[in-house]
Amino acid sequence: MNAIKGHFRSKHVFSSFFQVCILERQIFDFLGYQWAPILTNFVHIITVILGLFGTAQFRPRYVTGYAVWLVLWVAWNVFVICFYLEVGDLSKDTDLIMTFNMSMHRSWWMENGPGCMVTPVTPPPDWAPEDHRYISISGCLLEYQYIEVAHSTLQIILALAGFIYACYVVKLITEEEDSFDFIGGFDSYGYQGPQKTSHLQLQPMYMSK
């Protein structure tokens, strides 16, 4: 039990770093109106909290669910990397995937990346929507798609570490459950209660004259 508590403290530090990284990503996705990543990040935050709760309360099902979600989380981040690197038929200019076709916004880093200079184009072309500005971006030290790829790569590394750690915690909890009786507090194999006799044995008494 003490071993699990010690690992819980370590997992708490790891999860705190995990949460800071995902909250940072969530903020920039909000700024860029990236609705698909926003929803996925929200589910991820809730799952991390449940995984931490499962570790604290010694409930392997919660930790197992957290580990299963990490597999899906890795798959999502691999897809994001492929999306921004335009692998196969994917295109980073597609509005349907990241914004559900509700806006023409791109990643926040597209206009606010390191060294990027935004210049309004006037007059805008005829095809440009009236409620949108038409801009030109130049001078970026690092293109926005590579920043998004770096974010996803970091999440994959953290997820792999979290998956290994979750499996280890489940193993510890399962071993503790097998060797300790949580209800009685005794080893289920090493302790036997006192045996009660059903009747008293009477011994004959002899009187000497």
Automatic annotation (TrEMBL):
<protein>
    <recommendedName>
        <fullName>Sodium/potassium-transporting ATPase subunit beta-1-interacting protein</fullName>
    </recommendedName>
</protein>
<keyword id="KW-1003">Cell membrane</keyword>
<dbReference type="InterPro" id="IPR008516">
    <property type="entry name" value="Na/K-Atpase_Interacting"/>
</dbReference>
<dbReference type="Pfam" id="PF05640">
    <property type="entry name" value="NKAIN"/>
</dbReference>
<feature type="transmembrane region" description="Helical">
    <location>
        <begin position="35"/>
        <end position="54"/>
    </location>
</feature>
<dbReference type="GO" id="GO:0002028">
    <property type="term" value="P:regulation of sodium ion transport"/>
</dbReference>
<keyword id="KW-0812">Transmembrane</keyword>
<feature type="transmembrane region" description="Helical">
    <location>
        <begin position="152"/>
        <end position="170"/>
    </location>
</feature>
<keyword id="KW-0472">Membrane</keyword>
<dbReference type="GO" id="GO:0005886">
    <property type="term" value="C:plasma membrane"/>
</dbReference>
<comment type="similarity">
    <text>Belongs to the NKAIN family.</text>
</comment>
<keyword id="KW-1133">Transmembrane helix</keyword>
<feature type="transmembrane region" description="Helical">
    <location>
        <begin position="66"/>
        <end position="87"/>
    </location>
</feature>
